[in-house]
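Lab notebook, bench 4. Still working through the backlog of constructs that have no structural model yet. Next entry is a single chain of 462 residues. Request: give me the structure tokens for it.
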Amino acid sequence: SRVVSIPREIIDVFSRAGGASFLVRGDPGSGKTIFALSVCKAFSGSNECFYVTARSTADEVKRYYPIAEELLDERRVIDATESKAEVGLETAVSLRMYDKPSFLQKLYSMTKAEEKAPIIVIDSLEALKASLKIPDGDVSFEEALIDIGRETNGKILFVSERTEKSFLDYLVDGVISLQKENRNGFFLRLIRIEKMRGVSIAHPVYLFTLEGGAFNAVSFEALSMSQKVIRANAKFELIYREPAIDGHVSTGIKRLDDLIGGYLKGSLNLIEIERGVGELYDYFYLPTVINHVIGGGKVFLIPPGGLSADFMKHVLTSILPEAKVKKEVVIAEYGEKTNDAVTMLKGDDLLQDAELIFQHLEEGGLLVAGMDTLQHIYGLDELKRSLGRLIARVKRSRIVMVGIVKYGQEVIDLLNHLADTHLKVGNVNGNVVAYGIIPHTPVFHPFLAEGRVLEVGITVIM
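Model written out:
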């Protein structure tokens, strides 16, 4: 059974007693039909869904949208297309060749007879009006359908093929716009809540996916992985993720391993952070560190700017046994020594300090380095002069290096040419997302799964 996730504002208004009407619009392929069916799915326990199809035949709806197959009672799939094809679903209701009064009367009698309040999906409004020979400018049809919703305490969902505003915007209680966008070659889906009468709109724009044939809005993640772990104040169950490919180490995120194959031993793996991400980029490197330590691997960590060695030790010991962290992990920083467990960098010569890395790490070891921290310690000139040689030695030693570089750092040009994998992490309307440049991947959103098992998942935008 497909899982759906609908924005809270829409759930709230559909949960209210009484009739209401909504307009869902968007370009072809934006996800309007799957969204409407997913709303029906979300309320299948409390409401009865009636699906009026005027674009595709009843057979085609079931064939193209698997969620309809598992959701819709065939007696409530109402075929109002102009197709001459026979309806294969024996019990599907055919309203072809009906006129406007007959259609409204039939729909009212069907929905009024139900014990549960109906959700009536009109897909699409323009196709239905054409099928019933109703002039485009005649809004009395829409008004009559809205009245049916009021009389039956039901919800009317008008699916529109038009994206521009119309008189219907003012008649309905809610207006929802679905969009698909191409941003620099990467595909996004956005749902905009333009109007929702009587409901406070906390988030007017949500990122969503149609992966698996169902609508799923991406939940807003306000806290970094570190913050969530510390606030949980509990010991998690830990699972070691085997590498997906021989000669690699796991990213610690199963779905990310599926997308990029994990990290090759002897590689530079770049995580580039754009503006507006805050500290939420830790969803992309902390799982790698944790998984590596669980598997008995050694880690050398130079925390990104703004994160002290003491804080990183606190995060790791909140998740992993303290003795294991002490044995497997070296956390390095520059400045005054505050903790015996922290290794100090001298800060004069990058390659000289890097000897500490190679003393601790062996083949398959993990080096995580904040490039802003390295630039602060050694200066840009020294970084440009020595970083390439450091990375070359890392690769020869078959060490896995994860380099975290933040927006505005000039060293990105050098790292771009040396990277074996390259993820870019950004902010889309308040959602942290990432996408692979090397290799190319769809846009995806990270989240910490609920439950006692510590697991980061990703939602792929499809």
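Notes after review: Residues 380-396 form the longest helix (17 residues). The mean pLDDT is 92. Flag for follow-up if needed.
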